[in-house]
Write a structure and sequence with these properties.
The structure is a single chain. This protein is of the alpha/beta class. It contains 16 helices and 19 strands. A nine-stranded mixed beta sheet has the order 6-7-5-8-9-10-11-12-13, sandwiched between helices. α4 packs parallel to α11.
């Protein structure tokens, strides 16, 4: 069936389901394949659960005219999203980066939502499946879309750009993330730079952090037509700002280039000096879209971090800095530096393994240990097989697994401390919270 015909079905039934456990009545079911499943086998179940059509790519499961056979379900989903995107006239902001992209996306959403009906990426729907699903959730009431795009190898951002077709773009930073897939830092720059490549080809606008030499050079190398700078202080900036407090929540002041008004002061609910750049990015985008200072400030002040990113949790016995959704050498370094700057009588850091480091894993984990031990703390705790390999060389506490840490905490409590918990999602360090 041609994509135009499938699109007509989508217009009549504009809800997409990919999981038979969460079928929305009246939806279109796309039978995607995974490493351990083939959703073609669930087509009949999806229809029974309320889906009006099932899109499949295995003729064996073509049961009735309610099953639509295509060459490849994933490609069809992506092409449907591309077709839908072409019908939309709203601004689409594409956002990627090694660190901070989800927090920045949420901040941009919080600011723009003060004035517009915004569709922003939900959860972790930022890959080759999530981006099409996000695009297909945009309806006629939405005025702006903020699309997060994740990648762990080159050409992935390029693909996602062809689907989301951003008119605006922002790379938060480039750092040592997904080194296994990107093949090193230069590979990261090339992969993330695919967003700039798309903006160049389509005369889109890039929001660029002037304090990042890498990002400035990346956009200069591509001779982007439209660039809006933000950052801590530079003659290039449209928006400039600086921290006024980090104890542990961030407060900042910011101003608009050429403005004779006094600096704006904002109190946020975020911790981590590294989040200043994320906040300034959201302020810059809000200003670009003509929001007044009062609305911009309300968006920043009203945003509450969640999903275990730069999130402060106060328990009965400790203050926890929960930042264990993801980790890489770059984000580890800034999280450790932030703990160093926070005023607290007792500090403890619990750092978990970083995933997808490839051949550089041993060297990068040892480098993090060295950085951490330069910061004064009552205890330095490292968790995971990669860190454990270095246990004989450094005066710190090492555990192979999070379960080992839990067992220790059950017999030896930590009390009255500020505790940084940072590691890759796969380490599941959230299980420690109940014991802190």
């Amino acid at each position: 069936m041609p994509i135009e015909e499938i699109y007509q079905l989508y217009l009549q039934h504009p809800v997409i389901s990919t999981d038979t456990r969460k079928i929305s009545p009246g939806s279109l079911f796309f039978a995607l394949k995974g490493d351990k499943f083939d959703a073609n086998t669930f087509a009949a179940q999806a229809l029974e659960a309320g889906a009006v059509y099932a899109i499949i790519d295995n003729a064996e499961y073509r049961l009735s005219d309610k099953t639509i056979l295509v060459d490849d379900v994933l490609t069809t989903l992506q092409n449907l999203a591309r077709y839908h995107r072409k019908q939309l006239q709203i601004p689409v902001i594409g956002l990627t980066g090694s660190n901070g992209k989800t927090t920045t996306k949420e901040l941009v959403n919080a600011v723009l939502s003060q004035q517009f009906n915004v569709l922003a990426t939900q959860g972790n729907l930022n890959n080759h499946i999530g981006v099409p699903l996000t695009i297909l959730s945009i309806n006629t009431l939405h005025q702006v879309a903020v699309i997060e795009m994740g990648a762990n190898h080159q050409k992935e951002i390029e693909l996602l750009c062809t689907i989301a077709q951003p008119t605006y773009g922002l790379i938060t930073n480039v750092g040592k993330a997904h080194l296994e897939g990107f093949g090193g830092l230069e590979g990261v720059k090339k992969g993330k730079g695919e967003l700039y490549d798309y903006l160049k080809a389509t005369s889109g606008t890039a929001f660029v952090n002037s304090n990042s030499p890498e990002l400035v050079k990346m956009q200069e190398d591509r001779h982007l037509d439209r660039v809006v700078y933000y950052g801590r202080h530079s003659l290039l900036n449209t928006i400039s700002g600086s921290l006024t407090e980090n104890a542990p929540y961030l407060a900042l002041q910011w101003n608009v280039a050429g403005s004779t008004e006094k600096d704006q002061h904002v109190n946020s609910q975020l911790t981590g000096e590294y989040n200043l750049d994320n906040i300034l990015a959201a302020i810059c985008i809000g200003h670009y879209f003509n929001l007044g200072k009062t609305l911009i400030n309300a968006g920043i002040e009203g945003y509450q971090p969640k999903n275990n990113r730069s999130q402060i949790v106060t328990t009965a016995t400790n203050t926890l800095i929960c930042d264990y959704y993801n980790a890489n050498p770059s984000s580890m370094a800034v999280a450790i530096a932030n703990l160093d700057k926070i005023q607290a009588d007792h500090k403890i850091m619990i750092l978990g393994d970083m995933f997808e480091m490839g051949p550089q894993a041993a060297a990068e984990h040892e480098a993090v240990i060295k950085i951490a031990l330069c910061v004064k703390a009552d205890e330095h705790i490292f968790v995971g097989g990669e860190f454990y390999l270095h246990r004989a060389k450094y005066p710190a506490t090492f555990y192979k697994t999070a379960e080992d840490v839990v067992a220790e905490l059950q017999s030896k409590s930590i009390i009255g401390s500020t505790v940084l918990i940072k590691g890759s999602r796969g380490m599941a360090l959230e299980r420690l919270v109940a014991y802190l």
